[in-house]
Amino acid sequence: MSRWIAMALVALTLICACTRTSLPPIVEAKRVFVIVMENHSYEEALQGAYTAELEKQAGVATNYHAITHPSVPNYLAITSGQTWGISEDTYRALPPEDIGHQMTSADIRWRAYMEGLVPGRCFDSPKPFNGDHDPFAYYGGRCPSNAVPFSELSLDLQTTSTRFSWIGPDSCHDQHDCSTAAGDNWLRQTVGMITSSHAWRADAVLFITWDEDSGGADNRVLMLVLRPDVKHRVSAAEYDHYSLLATIEDILGVPRLANAATARPMNDLIG
Fold first, then answer.
1. Is 40 within the bounds of a domain?
2. CATH of the domain at 231
3. Which residues does 203 contact at the CB level (< 8 Å), separation at least 6?
4. What's the pTM?
5. How many domains, the chain?
6. Which of 99, 135, 143, 229 could tie 75 with a disulfide, CB 3.0–4.6 Å?
7. Within a domain: residue 3?
8. What three-state secondary structure class fits 233?
9. What pLDDT score was predicted for residue 16?
10. What is the pLDDT of residues 25-79, one digit of tens each?
11. Nearest to 77 by CA among 68, 93, 158, 91
12. Residue 85 is part of which domain span?
């Protein structure tokens, strides 16, 4: 009898092993950084010398697309999984159904570092700050305390307590109003600050993408994925901004919102 039991246990072990290897990889908890640039196609973004350099080192999604035009609905797609029927760059108070409120409810520390933001003034900080590019002020119709000036990022990088960091350059450094080179130089400084920090060494992932292309129907934009211990890799899988949200929510362990629920996460670029 013991022989048959042993044989059964071996068979069960083999079955379990096969089952495990057939499942998608489990995404372990990490610290997440997101940088969103503006209005450049895949090819246009790579005209920046530093961006082109990163593209040879990072994970690259070559078939990544924005959701629509213009900017605002894309920012909403990244942070809530839907565009809420908004089809222009306009402000409208929305229900508090976004990743920011998810993280707050789950006691996950997060911050949105907005360049040019005057504390508490998400709606009327002077230019080159652009409130349209601060999606977290839409949800609940108020300026969240988690939205802080970009200058606070350098101090926070000395710790690992902030699990999610949204980094919003101003309308010059995001390449909307200024040259590709201006934004590219800002990326060089900002990415360098992140990847040389204590927080980066704590198993982090950095996503860099563009909200939309320069008006094309294809709307293909660059998506770069940086990890401390993962070298260059390329994915031709079809992804979009909903995939980005799905990936982030899986990493943080919160439920997927709206269209992110059925989106394909970018596990091949982060594992």
1. yes
2. 3.40.720.10
3. 28, 30, 31, 228
4. 0.89
5. 1
6. 135
7. no
8. strand
9. 37
10. 434 658 999 999 999 999 999 999 999 999 999 999 999 999 999 999 999 999 9
11. 68
12. 29-270
